[in-house]
Description:
Layout: H1 5-16, H2 21-40, H3 65-74, H4 83-92, H5 96-100, E1 107-110, E2 113-118, H6 124-129, E3 133-136, H7 139-147, H8 170-180, H9 182-188, H10 197-208, H11 213-220
Antiparallel strand pairs: 1-2, 2-3
Helix pairs in contact: 1-2, 4-10
Amino acid sequence: QINSNHYEILMRDCRKNKNINKTINRKLEVLKSALNLAVELEWIQSFPKIPRLPETNYTWYIFSKEDIDNIFAETTGKYEYLRDPLYFALHTGIRKKNIQTLKKHHFKQTLHGMVMTIPAKQTKGGKKSGRDFVLPLTKYQEEIIKRNWHDDTDYIFKGWNGKPNLGNFRRAFTGILNRLGITQKAHDMGTKARWHDFRHTCGTQLAEMGANSFQIKEIMG
C-alpha cells in the first residue's frame, strides 16, 4: 500500500522533526527503493523523480594542544575515570564504542610487547573488510592498559564511581567541553566538538609526524 504521495508525507514529517538534509536523503533512498519495487510489482506505473537534497559537508574539530592540556586538567576528581580512556583514544584513534567495550581478551602479551586485537564484527572497518583490527601497542599505550587491568571486571576501563564498565559518559564529557569553551569555539568554526574528534586529531598528528596515508590507515584501522 505505497504510492507517490508518501514523498509529501515523508518530507512533511522530516521537516516537523527538524531532520537535517543528510538524514532526509537516507530516508528518501529507502522510499525510492520501495517505490521502485512497487513499479516492478505493477502496483503503480511510475512515480515522479525524487530529488536529492544538498548536504553540508561536516568539518571535524581537531583538538589543539591547548585544548588537550585543558581537558586533561579537567579530568580530576569525579572525572578522573575519563583520563586514561581519553589518553588511549588520542594515542590510538580507536572509536568511542570500542573504547567503551575494551576487554581483557582483546589484549595479548607477546615477546615483542602487547598486541590489541578487535574482531572484525566489532569495528566499522572490519565489517566492510572482514579483517580483525590488530594493533601492536607502544610502551606508553601498554602502560595505560596495564594500570587499568582490574581483577573484579573483564572491562579495561571502569566508569564513574567504580562502575565495572565505562558506560555512556557523553554528558560528563560534554560538560567538560562546555566549561572550557571548546563547544563554543567549535560552533564559531561552524562545526561541533565530540569525543570522536580524538580519532581525527590522532590521524592529523600522525600525518604531521610524517606518517603516510597507508600507515595511518593501518594504525587507525
